[in-house]
Amino acid sequence: MPTDSAATPPPPTERRAVVLLSGGLDSSTTLAIAVEQGFTPYAISFRYGQRHSRELAAAQALGRHFGVRDHKIIDIDLRAFGGSALTSDEIAVPHERSTADMGHGIPVTYVPGRNLIFLSLATAFAEVIGANDIFLGITAIDFSGYPDCRPEFLESFAQTANLATKAGTEDGRTLRYHAPLIQMGKAEIVREGTRLGVPWEQTWSCYEGDEVACGTCDSCLLRLKGFAEVGLSDPLPYRQR
Description:
The chain is of the alpha/beta class and 241 residues long. It has one domain: Rossmann fold (3-Layer(aba) Sandwich). Helices cover 35% and strands 10% of the residues. The chain has eight helices and five strands. The chain has a five-stranded parallel sheet with strand order 3-2-1-4-5, sandwiched between helices. The termini are far apart.
């Protein structure tokens, strides 16, 4: 849990990084990459009114596995707005869509403003602990059409963040936003995560919160497709593969 020392500047030899950690395939691989690159990881996750808490349990397990220094879980009520299948009981999660269907338009699982909010809070966390690097697991390939998973979005946010913070305007720091998976498809991410020793059995990607993953929502289908393309078996149990 947080300590007073977490807010002090890092020692000269320590490079701190904040990693947005959802508990899924992409963010767990991103965390592993940050650790491999020599960063001391600090994780941030969000209880934002999503359908279930399985992903948060996964994020906590992954944080322990990779030895994160501090793990913040922030409460935000995006159900107050709804507008997404993930934050409204009135909108159903789509199932059994083809990859072609996923490649057209923005799906109902898009959560308005989510990455804007998450990155803003991750930036505040980084500014306080003296971290200049923020990692997130967005990808512009196999990304289900989310507009806030594109390189253009991240480049624009980085420019804004450096203009909007004391770190960037007075302290002479440059906040850097890393999306190491941005040009990777799910198969490449599975291959990279496997190389880095990500414990796939501790991750969770399904949009539903049942005892086993559904196997038919967009997230499950893309995940299973990634494992299949590299010839690996996903260790998670599925109701339908």
